[in-house]
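This protein record is not my work; I was only asked to verify it. Where you disagree with what is written, explain briefly why. This is what I was given:
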Amino acid sequence: DGAAATDATLGSEPGYLALDGAGNLYIPDYSNYVVRMVDHATGFISTVAGTGASGRSGDAGPALAAALDGPWSVAVDNAGDLFIGEYDGGGVRKVSGLAVAFSLPVTPPVGLPATGASTDSLVWIALAMLAAGAVLVTAQRRTNRVR
């Protein structure tokens, strides 16, 4: 943290990346259980969410005190809120103002059953914000569906 991104060592499996409105790059570092940000202006990298330990704790607290469970995808909305899709945890976390993290309820939509999988095995692996910045789009592994 605090050094040039080109000198940083990431885990073996960085996930799906995202850019915010200022051009900062967000990297979900799956095997290190953190989300990193490369500052567009300086090129420096820093951790913006996660403790480095696997888990699902830290809701309603500082993002750097939250344990993430396999961060795999990220998206940033127009307000600068960071959404983190957790591969191992099967949930979506929201970091508002990069200060407070909480979990979003994630359930299959009515009328679209998870064919061939129980709802306990849903894994949310891709996040994206639409141009309006208000709609979160997710894709699921194990159900072969986009929700």
About this structure: Residues 3-146 form a domain with the Neuraminidase fold (CATH 2.120.10.30). Confidence is low (pLDDT under 50) at residues 108-112, 116-121. The chain is about 0% helix and 40% strand.
